[in-house]
Amino acid sequence: MDLLIFQKINGLAGKAVCLDGLGIFFAEYFGYALVFILFLFLLKDCKKYWQLTAKALAAAIFARIIVELVRFVWEKPRPFLENNVNLLVSHEASGSFPSGHASFFFALGTVVFLHNKKLGILFLTSSFLIGISRIFVGVHWPSDILVGAILGVLSGWIINRFFSKIKLL
Known about the structure:
Elements (H helix, E strand, L loop, with lengths): L1 H9 L6 H28 L1 H28 L5 H4 L17 H16 L1 H20 L5 H25 L3
Protein backbone atom coordinates (compact mmCIF):
# COMPACT_ATOMS: atom_id res chain seq x y z
CA MET A 1 0.00 0.00 0.00
CA ASP A 2 2.84 2.38 0.93
CA LEU A 3 4.55 1.74 -2.42
CA LEU A 4 1.32 2.14 -4.39
CA ILE A 5 0.44 5.50 -2.81
CA PHE A 6 4.05 6.65 -3.16
CA GLN A 7 4.07 5.75 -6.87
CA LYS A 8 0.80 7.62 -7.49
CA ILE A 9 2.04 10.81 -5.82
CA ASN A 10 5.69 10.70 -6.92
CA GLY A 11 4.59 9.62 -10.40
CA LEU A 12 3.23 13.14 -10.92
CA ALA A 13 6.75 14.58 -10.52
CA GLY A 14 8.77 15.40 -13.61
CA LYS A 15 5.71 16.03 -15.78
CA ALA A 16 5.23 19.78 -15.37
CA VAL A 17 7.87 22.35 -14.46
CA CYS A 18 5.34 24.48 -12.57
CA LEU A 19 4.11 21.54 -10.46
CA ASP A 20 7.68 20.43 -9.79
CA GLY A 21 8.58 23.94 -8.66
CA LEU A 22 5.64 24.03 -6.27
CA GLY A 23 6.53 20.60 -4.91
CA ILE A 24 10.13 21.63 -4.30
CA PHE A 25 9.04 24.93 -2.72
CA PHE A 26 6.68 23.20 -0.27
CA ALA A 27 9.08 20.34 0.47
CA GLU A 28 12.16 22.47 1.06
CA TYR A 29 11.25 26.08 1.83
CA PHE A 30 7.63 26.65 2.90
CA GLY A 31 8.29 25.51 6.46
CA TYR A 32 10.49 28.55 6.97
CA ALA A 33 7.45 30.73 6.24
CA LEU A 34 5.47 29.02 9.01
CA VAL A 35 8.23 29.61 11.57
CA PHE A 36 8.56 33.20 10.32
CA ILE A 37 4.81 33.74 10.86
CA LEU A 38 5.21 32.69 14.50
CA PHE A 39 7.97 35.23 14.96
CA LEU A 40 5.84 37.91 13.26
CA PHE A 41 3.25 37.34 15.98
CA LEU A 42 5.96 37.94 18.56
CA LEU A 43 6.90 41.20 16.85
CA LYS A 44 3.25 42.24 16.65
CA ASP A 45 2.48 41.70 20.33
CA CYS A 46 5.15 39.92 22.36
CA LYS A 47 3.12 39.82 25.58
CA LYS A 48 0.14 38.25 23.86
CA TYR A 49 1.96 35.70 21.67
CA TRP A 50 5.13 34.65 23.52
CA GLN A 51 3.32 31.73 25.20
CA LEU A 52 1.99 30.46 21.87
CA THR A 53 5.42 30.72 20.27
CA ALA A 54 7.21 29.07 23.18
CA LYS A 55 4.72 26.18 23.29
CA ALA A 56 4.83 25.70 19.53
CA LEU A 57 8.61 25.61 19.39
CA ALA A 58 8.80 23.33 22.46
CA ALA A 59 6.31 20.95 20.82
CA ALA A 60 8.23 20.96 17.54
CA ILE A 61 11.51 20.22 19.32
CA PHE A 62 9.85 17.50 21.43
CA ALA A 63 8.47 15.92 18.26
CA ARG A 64 11.91 15.95 16.61
CA ILE A 65 13.43 14.25 19.66
CA ILE A 66 10.82 11.50 19.45
CA VAL A 67 11.51 11.11 15.71
CA GLU A 68 15.22 10.68 16.34
CA LEU A 69 14.55 8.10 19.08
CA VAL A 70 12.30 6.12 16.72
CA ARG A 71 14.89 6.35 13.94
CA PHE A 72 17.54 5.06 16.34
CA VAL A 73 15.61 1.81 16.86
CA TRP A 74 13.87 1.49 13.49
CA GLU A 75 15.90 1.99 10.34
CA LYS A 76 13.81 2.49 7.21
CA PRO A 77 15.51 3.49 3.97
CA ARG A 78 14.26 6.42 1.93
CA PRO A 79 12.29 5.64 -1.24
CA PHE A 80 15.05 6.78 -3.58
CA LEU A 81 17.42 4.20 -2.09
CA GLU A 82 15.16 1.24 -2.89
CA ASN A 83 13.29 2.28 -6.02
CA ASN A 84 13.50 4.18 -9.25
CA VAL A 85 11.83 7.45 -8.25
CA ASN A 86 11.43 10.96 -9.57
CA LEU A 87 13.86 12.57 -7.12
CA LEU A 88 13.50 16.34 -7.34
CA VAL A 89 15.73 17.35 -4.42
CA SER A 90 18.98 16.04 -3.08
CA HIS A 91 18.89 14.32 0.27
CA GLU A 92 21.30 12.31 2.35
CA ALA A 93 20.72 8.58 2.59
CA SER A 94 19.49 8.73 6.19
CA GLY A 95 16.51 6.93 7.68
CA SER A 96 13.11 8.18 6.62
CA PHE A 97 10.75 6.87 9.28
CA PRO A 98 9.05 8.84 10.68
CA SER A 99 9.20 12.16 8.87
CA GLY A 100 10.94 14.86 10.87
CA HIS A 101 9.37 17.56 8.71
CA ALA A 102 5.85 16.22 9.27
CA SER A 103 6.34 15.81 13.01
CA PHE A 104 7.87 19.29 13.39
CA PHE A 105 5.23 21.18 11.41
CA PHE A 106 2.23 19.21 12.68
CA ALA A 107 3.44 19.90 16.24
CA LEU A 108 3.58 23.63 15.44
CA GLY A 109 0.19 23.47 13.77
CA THR A 110 -1.44 21.62 16.66
CA VAL A 111 -0.30 24.15 19.25
CA VAL A 112 -1.41 27.03 17.03
CA PHE A 113 -4.77 25.29 16.47
CA LEU A 114 -5.30 24.87 20.21
CA HIS A 115 -4.63 28.60 20.60
CA ASN A 116 -6.46 29.94 17.53
CA LYS A 117 -8.66 27.65 15.41
CA LYS A 118 -8.58 29.68 12.17
CA LEU A 119 -4.84 30.21 12.18
CA GLY A 120 -4.36 26.60 13.32
CA ILE A 121 -6.28 25.31 10.29
CA LEU A 122 -3.93 27.34 8.08
CA PHE A 123 -0.89 25.87 9.86
CA LEU A 124 -2.23 22.30 9.75
CA THR A 125 -3.16 22.62 6.07
CA SER A 126 0.33 23.95 5.38
CA SER A 127 1.79 21.01 7.31
CA PHE A 128 -0.22 18.62 5.16
CA LEU A 129 1.08 20.31 1.98
CA ILE A 130 4.65 20.03 3.26
CA GLY A 131 4.10 16.34 4.00
CA ILE A 132 2.57 15.52 0.61
CA SER A 133 5.31 17.45 -1.14
CA ARG A 134 7.97 15.38 0.64
CA ILE A 135 6.41 12.30 -1.01
CA PHE A 136 6.07 14.14 -4.34
CA VAL A 137 9.78 15.06 -4.45
CA GLY A 138 10.76 11.46 -3.61
CA VAL A 139 12.28 11.66 -0.12
CA HIS A 140 9.53 10.09 2.04
CA TRP A 141 7.11 7.21 2.03
CA PRO A 142 3.44 7.99 2.81
CA SER A 143 3.73 6.02 6.08
CA ASP A 144 6.66 8.25 7.11
CA ILE A 145 4.45 11.31 6.70
CA LEU A 146 1.43 9.73 8.41
CA VAL A 147 3.38 8.60 11.48
CA GLY A 148 5.30 11.89 11.58
CA ALA A 149 1.99 13.79 11.51
CA ILE A 150 0.57 11.64 14.31
CA LEU A 151 3.70 12.16 16.42
CA GLY A 152 3.54 15.89 15.73
CA VAL A 153 -0.12 16.20 16.73
CA LEU A 154 0.47 14.16 19.89
CA SER A 155 3.57 16.22 20.73
CA GLY A 156 1.66 19.46 20.27
CA TRP A 157 -1.18 18.24 22.43
CA ILE A 158 1.14 16.89 25.17
CA ILE A 159 3.25 20.05 25.34
CA ASN A 160 0.15 22.25 25.38
CA ARG A 161 -1.36 20.19 28.22
CA PHE A 162 1.93 20.06 30.12
CA PHE A 163 2.44 23.83 30.07
CA SER A 164 -1.23 24.46 30.86
CA LYS A 165 -1.08 22.21 33.93
CA ILE A 166 2.15 23.52 35.42
CA LYS A 167 1.34 27.16 34.60
CA LEU A 168 4.90 27.95 33.52
CA LEU A 169 3.65 29.66 30.41
